[in-house]
Every structure is written in C-alpha cells, then in structure tokens.
Amino acid sequence: MRFGPTILDQAEYLASCTHASAGITRTYLSRAHRKAGDFLVQLMQDAGMDAAYDAIGNVVGRYAGRDETAPVIVTGSHQDSVVDAGRYDGVFGILSPIACIADLNRRGVHPHNPIEVVAFGDEEGVRFEVTMIGSAGLAGSFDPSWLDRRDDQGTTMRDALLEFGGAPNEWATVRRDPSRIACFVESHIEQGPVLLNEGLPLGVVTAIAGVSRLRGTVLGIAGHAGTVPMPGRRDALAAAAEMALAIENLALKNEAPIVATVGKFAVAGGGAINVIPGRVEFTVDLRSPDDAIRRDAVAQLVDLCQAIAKRRQVQVEWQRFFDLDAAPCDEALQDQLAHAIKAHGVGVRRLPSGAGHDAMKFAGFARIAMLFVRCGNGGISHNPLEIMTAEDADIATRVLLSFFENFSSGSMVASHAA
Ligand code: HGY
Ligand code: MN
Ligand code: MN
After folding, report:
1. Separation of alpha carbons 313 and 335, rounded Å
2. Are the C-beta atoms of 120 and 37 separated by less than 8 Å?
3. Ligand 1 center–CA 277 separation, angstroms
4. What are the backbone dihedrals phi and psi of residue 314, each rounded to the nearest 5 degrees, phi first?
5. Comparing C-alpha atoms, which of 158, 169, 175 is closest to residue 29?
6. Three-state DSSP class for 316?
C-alpha cells in the first residue's frame, strides 16, 4: 500500500494534538490547533507545496499547475474536532490530498490546474458556536460579527485570533475569487453505516443535507424543592425535557427524511439539587436533504414547544443561530469521481450525506464534489470509536490522485461516466 499506513500514522500524530486531559478535543485557535497546524504546514512543504496560515487560522498549501493561470482545484477539510472525537473526521480529508501531492511531487508531475489543500481552522463550531468558519472565509460568507463572539471563557474570537498569530482585521483577504476556482472536492469518512453494510470502501456524495440549529431557552420559576407543591410548579427543566422528547418524536414519526438532535441541555448556573430549575437552555440540530421539509419541521417544532410551554405556564424563547441549505454535488464532478473509482476496480455507490461538511460552504460559489470513505464500528463517528482501515485510506487516496491527474474542468464524456 502506497498511502494508507502513513496517513493513519499521521492521523495518530494529529490525535495527540488535543487540549483534553483524555480523548481528542481540538478546537479553533487553541494550542492544539497550532500544534496540528504547524505539523500540516511542514507536511505540505515536504510535499512540495508553498504552505502557510491565512489570516483566520486556516492552513493553505498550494501546488503549482502546469498552467498557473488555470483555475485552482481546492481540496481539504477541517482540522478541528468535536469534544472527545474520533481520529479521522476532517483530518482524513487533509492528509489524503497532501499524500496525493507528495506523490505527484516525487514523480515531478504537475497537473494542468494548480491544487490548493486547505486545513480549515474550524468546521465543528465547538468553541464559538459558529460552524464552518474556515470554509466560510474562503467562500465569501465569513461574518465579521463572529469576531465578537465569546467562548465559554469569555475570550472573543478576535482576541483568540490575535493570540494565535492571525489577523482578524484581514479576514476579507481570505476570500477567493470564485472565477479562479475550478472546483472544491472533499474526501471525508462517511460517518455512517451505508458503505460498511454494502461492503464498499468508497462512495460518491450526491448532496449534503441542509441543517437548522436553534437554541431554546425555557423560563419557569425557580423555587424550593421541598416546599413548592407539585401542582402548579413552573419547572423549566421538566418542561424542556418534555420539549426534547417532543422534538425527538417529531423526527421519529415524520415520514419525511428528518433527523433532530438535542445535543446540549443545561440548567442556567448549573442548577442545584434542592432548587426547582427556573431557566434551562438547550440546542436543536435539525436536518433534511429537502429544505422545504426542514423549514416546515422547524416551524412544527416551535409550535409543539410553545404548546408545552403554555400548558406548563412557562415561557420558551428561540434563537436561530445557524441555517444552511442542502448542497447538491456537481453531476460532472460526481462522474469524474465515479470514473476514478471504477478505474480502480471498485463498485460505484452514490449516496447523500447526512453530516454537514465544509463543501457545503462552497455550494453556489464553486462546483463541489465529495468522496466518502468507509467507517468501521457500524459507521460510528463523533466518538472515539471512529475507525477506518489503512486499505480504505489507501484506495481513497489513489482514487483522489486519479481524480486530480485526470481532472477536466468540462463535463465528462458520457461514455466515461460510471
Ligand atoms: O455536524 C456535522 O454534521 C459536522 O460534523 N460538523
Ligand atoms: Mn464532524
Ligand atoms: Mn467532518
């Protein structure tokens, strides 16, 4: 195997770039980000790329094309992780293209188009609760008001960037000219069981599900746990818990393809064993490949929670802080990936992505494509049990390399499409 074992070793090193006492947690602009970023800058330079951090903490490596005036193939994924993460989410989509470039460089080969590999500083949104900051920077949707957002220590993104060595006031310099981008292509572990169940190492993504994220705040009346009679309590936690179950039920019972998750749930101030909770905050992440269905489900969710609040004589307020439409992948690019997969003797499987990815940020800005790679352990991800094999890392990298070497900015000739 040319690539697989080395990539897994590199992923192992990146797993050591963590700021958690146990497990893998690497958030945007942390020291762990810096350690991982410095490693990736070196890896890109060793692969023959010009590499450096950009103003907002992305690591960008560029490999010259035979025609330096040709539009750039941009590829990459995110270096940051969720809390207590797996090893490969995001990271594989950085290491695999670097391995491709290193191979081209070793052979003295330059594809027609220049290639840029990007390690996006933030995609998961753990630190500042805004996601895909890095890819938003390149794709022109970075919102400078994010620089005033604070993490749970009260540090603003602006100050964190300055401390990291970034240049917050130069955020606009990161934006690409869309006419100079040939495509954005991202390799990523599937984070689901489809390829595993069908015995396939690779898949071509057809579209990425749209997502809505909201924060609900339930306001009841705090009270003495021992003296307030049960009837008539304005228990914010009990109300919020009923809302969380109603949200789960909405997604479960809906024929339409919807997934909904209450991922964060907290009593304001942490709560106390002998106090009836007066204020509870929780988050909702709702997704669907169909934007109209997603929007309708969010409206239903708000109504359901309002009815629960009314019956329990509490209030519920919503802050909608993230909305991203479903992102279709370019058909011609899908065909080019499918062709490369077929050329390596692997069955072609096209499938949607339930997980969000940096590629979504480029939808409407550039043509996008994604290559999925099989996950083991039932497809589990956002979990330390996330695994992939060296064989799958290897075939995915060989297919991506073939995509780069045969890239055509036009559409594939139909007979070639798999
Ligand atoms: O949430 C997602 O789908 C991605 O992992 N950030
Ligand atoms: Mn993720
Ligand atoms: Mn990811």
Report:
1. 56
2. no
3. 31
4. -120, 175
5. 158
6. strand
User: Tens digit of pLDDT for each residue in 77-92?
Assistant: 999 999 999 999 999 9
Phi, psi of 402 (to 5 degrees): -65, -40
Q: How far apart are CA 162 and CA 159, in angstroms?
A: 5
Ligand 1 atom at minimum distance from 285 CA: 1
* pTM of structure: 0.89
Domains of the chain, CATH where assigned? 4-208+326-405 (3.40.630.10), 210-323 (3.30.70.360)
Q: How do 181-189 and 368-373 pair as beta strands?
A: parallel
Amino acid identity, residue 397?
T
Cα–Cα separations (whole angstroms), residue 283 to 133, 213, 384 = 19, 7, 23
Question: Cα–chain-centroid distance for residue 276?
Answer: 37
> For a substitution probing ligand 1, which of 28, 77, 82 has the most ligand atoms within 8 Å of its CB?
82
122 lines ligand 1 (CB under 6 A): no
Residue 408's pLDDT band, with cuts at 50, 70 and 90, is confident
Q: How confident is the model at residue 207 (pLDDT cuts 50, 70, 90)?
A: very high
Residue nearest to atom 6 of ligand 1 (CA): 124
Closest atom of ligand 1 to CA, residue 382: 5
Spatial separation of the C-alpha atoms in residues 304 and 286, rounded to whole Å: 15
The dihedrals phi and psi of 85, each to the nearest 5 degrees, come to -90, 180
